[in-house]
Amino acid sequence: MKNRIKVERAEKDLSQADLAGRIGVSRQTINSIETGRYVPSTILALKLAQVFEKTVNEIFQLEETD
Amino acid sequence: MKNRIKVERAEKDLSQADLAGRIGVSRQTINSIETGRYVPSTILALKLAQVFEKTVNEIFQLEETD
DNA sequence: ACCAAATGTAAAACTTACTTTACATATTGT
DNA sequence: ACAATATGTAAAGTAAGTTTTACATTTGGT
């Protein structure tokens, strides 16, 4: 699964720590999702989408391997 | 988190087992998500949305407690 | 009423998300 | 060049998702 978190963060000028604080997770959680080390829960995806004012589908996309 | 899986399933006339088969998970996984026993991964949410031809946000919605 | 299919749960085992702590590297401003 | 902030990653621990097996209950058709 791909994601556009890094780009969305840049557009809102948020650091990983800022973003983590906003949605109540650790900075490492954001970093790990961003770098594809793990797949977030749907609750987390919805919260990220909420912060970025986008849909989950705009931020996360399936890949062949999923 | 609320979800509309039961309704979407009804609209497509799919049993829990049918749906499970389509996205490659067990029937219990579908049942557990549907009855709110647990929150699916974002990959699973995207696959469900794909089957229902809707966005993840149309199928899953945050609640206050999330 | 009977049978088949669908649904709700539950326990054990396994896998993966997430936290905390910690450190190393990179980037940016002055 | 220096200091501060941001990012990448790793290990250990805890919490949670998912599978498999199994059984009970409900629903629908005839």
Task: Identify the CATH class of chain A.
Answer: Mainly Alpha
* Total strand segments of chain A: 2
Helices and strands of chain A, in order, run as EHHHHHE
Q: Within the CATH hierarchy, at the fold level, what is the topology of chain A? A: 434 Repressor (Amino-terminal Domain)
The total tally of domains of chain A equals 1
Binned strand content of chain A: 5-15%
The CATH level-2 architecture of chain A is identified as: Orthogonal Bundle
**What is the average of the pLDDT values of chain A?**
96
Helix content of chain A: 55-70%
Radius of gyration over C-alpha positions of chain A, nearest whole angstrom: 11 Å
Explain how this protein is built.
2 copies of one chain form a homodimer. Chain A is mainly alpha-helical and about 70 residues long. Chain A has one domain (about 1-60): lambda repressor-like DNA-binding domains (434 Repressor (Amino-terminal Domain)), CATH 1.10.260. Helices cover about 60% and strands about 5% of the residues of chain A. Chain A is built from 5 helices and 2 strands; from the N terminus they run E-H-H-H-H-H-E. Chain A has helices spanning about 5-10, 15-25, 25-35, 40-50, 55-60; strands at about 1-5, 60. A two-stranded antiparallel ribbon of chain A has the order 1-2. In chain A, helix 2 (about 15-25) crosses helix 3. The radius of gyration of chain A is 11 Å and the shape is globular. The interface of A and B includes residues 44, 50, 60 and 66 of A. The first copy, chain A, binds a DNA duplex (30 and 30 nucleotides) through helix 3. Chains A, B: Keywords: DNA-binding. Chains A, B: GO terms for molecular function: DNA binding. Chains A, B: It holds the Pfam family HTH_3. Chains A, B: This is Helix-turn-helix transcriptional regulator.
